[in-house]
Amino acid sequence: MFEYKLEYTESSLINAFYRWDKFMQSVARICTKTLGIKYTAFETCSEKISLTIETQPIKAIPLNLPEADDTSEISFASGFSFEANDPRFGGWSGFDLNHQGKLVAVSDEGFALTADPKLDNLGQISGFENAIFSSLKNQNGEMLQGKNFTDAEDITVLPNGQLAVSFERDHRILVFNDILEPAVDTIALPQDMLDVFEQFSKVFQETGNRQYGNIGLEAITVLNGHLVAAIEEPLPNELEHRVYMQNNLGGWDNMYYQGLPGYGISSATTLPNGNILFLERNTEYFNSYEHYGVRVVEIDKNDFFANNHFTGKTWIQFEPTTGENFESIFCYTAKNGLTYVSLATDDNYAYSERNLFLNFEWKPQGITVTNSEMMEENLVYSPLIYNTSLEFPVIEMSLS
To answer: CA end-to-end span of the chain, whole Å?
Structure first.
């Protein structure tokens, strides 16, 4: 397991402007709630607008060495913070790369983003180009409005290239051909999942504990051609998170994941070897504001299928003082064969938080890349191709 702390660069006037803008947004949000003053920062975006996204480099400093029994190698590669000059830009809760190699993202205020990833000479994402921003739209072509309907939490690419987006509050999964266009379908959720959400709602009404008032479908990914969905928290009287996977009959199979107490699942992705990664955060922070922890956990694909009760191995952990809201995880493979796992944060439109993007290089034991391959020019992202005819690995890397 690697443990890190983050260092930020505060050097530009434009970054200072963005921070001041966030501060004013925070003040406006307080006024909205306490004084009933209309706040228009989150007005919908009916058109597709072009944005210039500015970046600032950041560092992640390792605090320890990997454990001796680690079976995979993971190391920090690069990172940056990012902002755009639009008050609606932020709240990014889910990122992925579609089959055309474009970055696609969703915000928990109901916005969508596409961009061409800017790559460095090692194939790492170092910024965003040709960014397009718009509101998410339902199947009727209507822009999503109101927090109960805009709260998108994760996005994943389905085997046929469509995009699935999970929502909480109004719990659902919408399917898009293009994230900037209206949704084309809705995936029916399992009844057991809906029952769990109802139980959380009752606990919130009985206790008033806000932790239970916003529990939802936080994480989705694809394994062996089937959609996997995970609920953020276990029920108060349980230790295991509910996890669901679509089966060949069109229904869902129930599974149970036991993580660390106090940690909630915020996103998921699938590695080229078929193992699943959960991004987790210490949700006790949101009640106490005293400490915060983030970790990435690897779930072995064989454990996932062999037993419907499973746990995982901690891959990455950030020191508790890292007060950023890590919401998204996805992986991609560059043309040179290097695979990266990327984490992104949701700034919550708050002065004290940022939009961060971190790249970690993942290299299983036994796989090496030569210096000449690492310095290959004009690296182009080649998306992971899902092959549902294979048992394992469930994802093939296309390097051509």
So the answer is: 32
Sequence letter at residue 393: P
339-346/356-364 β-pairing: antiparallel
Burial class of residue 333 (count of CB atoms within 10 Å of its CB; 0-12, 13-18, 19+) = buried
Tokens of 178: 């293009």
* Tokens 């030569």 sit on residue: 370
SS3 117: strand
The DSSP 8-state label assigned to residue 52 in this structure reads P
Total tally of structural domains belonging to the chain: 1
Token pair belonging to 370: 């030569």
Per-residue pLDDT in tens (0 to 9) along the chain, 400 residues: 556 566 555 444 444 444 455 556 556 555 554 554 444 445 778 789 999 999 998 876 555 544 434 445 788 888 999 999 888 899 999 999 999 999 999 999 999 999 999 999 888 999 999 999 999 999 999 999 888 889 899 999 999 999 999 998 888 999 999 999 999 999 999 999 999 888 888 877 777 766 666 778 899 999 989 999 999 988 888 889 999 999 888 899 999 999 888 889 999 999 998 999 999 988 665 444 444 678 899 999 888 777 789 999 888 887 644 567 889 999 998 888 889 999 999 988 877 788 999 999 988 754 433 332 322 333 233 333 222 222 222 222 222 2
For 261, the token pair is: 């107490």
Q: For tokens 């830009």, what's the residue?
A: 89
User: What is the Cα–Cα distance from 105 to 101, expressed in whole angstroms?
Assistant: 13
- CB-CB contact of 325 with 353 (8 Å): yes
- Cα–Cα distances (Å) from 73 to 13, 64, 76, 361, 397, in that order, read 38, 14, 10, 8, 18
Domain of 370? Answer: 2-397
Q: What's 35's domain CATH number? A: 2.115.10
Report yes or no: 196 and 212 within 8 Å, Cβ to Cβ: no
